[in-house]
Amino acid sequence: LLNIVFLTNSWLTSFNQPGLCITVAMLLHYFLLAAFTWMCLESVHFYLALVKVFNVYVPKYILKCCIAGWGIPAIVIILVLLINKDFYGNGSLSKSHPYSNFCWIQDNTVFYVSVVAYFFLIFLMNTAMFITVLLQVHSVKTRTQNTSRFWKQ
User: Fold this and answer.
1) Cβ 29 vs Cβ 88: under 8 Å
2) Contact (CB, 8 A) for 143 and 58
3) According to the UniProt entry, where is the signal peptide (predicted)?
4) SS3 15
5) How far is it, in rounded angstroms, from Cα 87 to Cα 153?
6) 87, 106 contact by CB (below 8 A)
7) Separation of alpha carbons 20 and 5, rounded Å
8) How far from chain centre, in Å, is Cα 17?
């Protein structure tokens, strides 16, 4: 859905409808954040599968993942819309982007907080999960090698 909204964004912007542009920018923002959130959920699943292998029963796991994967980005979008719906719009209407024909976030602060900081937090979490999984795999490999040396002796 992120790709579809991204590819149709310029075409939909050409209709010069402010409401349509706000909707397209909001959907683009939402699906981008949803993609980041699902990437984070994949790293959590990776951690559960490779580090916490046993006794990891989470009741209604898929439902909880879906609520987090689709709900957290929705909360961010709702907050941005509640603060000011004009944060979304067409960049060609501003003097700083006169040739832009794309609906997106117009305020730099909102962009850096709701996209860049969001991505940065997810990147940090994914990095932490990756390092944890690597350490776990390395320790299992070391234990296996030590065990095989013991039995060879």
Assistant:
1) yes
2) no
3) none
4) coil
5) 70
6) yes
7) 12
8) 28
Reported as a single tens digit per residue, the pLDDT across 93-106 is 555 655 568 899 99
Cα separation, 66 vs 51, whole angstroms: 22
d(CA 104, CA 12): 12
Tell me the one-letter amino acid at 142: T
C-alpha 35: how far from chain center: 4
pLDDT at 77 over 90: yes
The model's pTM: 0.85
Place of tokens 């992120």: 2
The secondary structure element, H or E, covering residue 104 is strand 103-105
Tell me the C-alpha distance between 73 and 37, whole Å.
7
Please state, in angstroms and rounded to a whole number, the distance separating the CA atoms of residues 112 and 5: 21
- Residue the block writes with tokens 């024909």: 101
Residues 76, 115 contacting (CB under 8 angstroms) = no
Cβ-contact 136, 51 below 8 angstroms:
yes
pLDDT score of 99: 54
